[in-house]
């Protein structure tokens, strides 16, 4: 494979709809903010030794991961922006379950605190 072919292939992959890049950007931001919140919660757990902070860190991590699952699947595994009906339903279900588990963990951590 020549350099020109490799560059052309990479440029073709970059030509995705605007919605794709918007979704990717939003997911990266959610991952960053969720990761920061999870890290802060974990540091609070280490300082205070209160299990509710540990549960909050888990919750923030699960919510952030649940939001990123679809984009990771599209970009990393599928390699395409377009997903089929059953495939889309399965990945949205997985994403929803992770977000719900994260929110339940946050709810429980607030209840314990």
From TrEMBL:
Keyword Membrane: yes
Keyword terms of this UniProt record: Membrane, Transmembrane, Transmembrane helix
Top-level taxon of origin: Archaea
Transmembrane segments: 20-43, 55-77, 89-111
Protein name: Uncharacterized protein
């Amino acid at each position: 494979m020549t350099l020109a072919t490799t560059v052309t292939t990479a440029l073709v992959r970059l030509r995705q709809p605007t919605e794709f890049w918007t979704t990717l950007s939003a997911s990266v931001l959610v991952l960053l903010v969720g990761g920061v919140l999870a890290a802060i919660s974990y540091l609070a757990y280490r300082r205070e030794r209160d299990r509710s902070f540990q549960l909050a860190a888990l919750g923030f991590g699960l919510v952030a991961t649940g939001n990123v699952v679809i984009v990771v699947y599209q970009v990393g595994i599928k390699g395409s922006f377009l997903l089929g009906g059953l495939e889309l339903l399965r990945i949205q279900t997985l994403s929803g379950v992770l977000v719900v588990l994260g929110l339940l963990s946050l709810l429980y951590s607030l209840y314990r605190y």
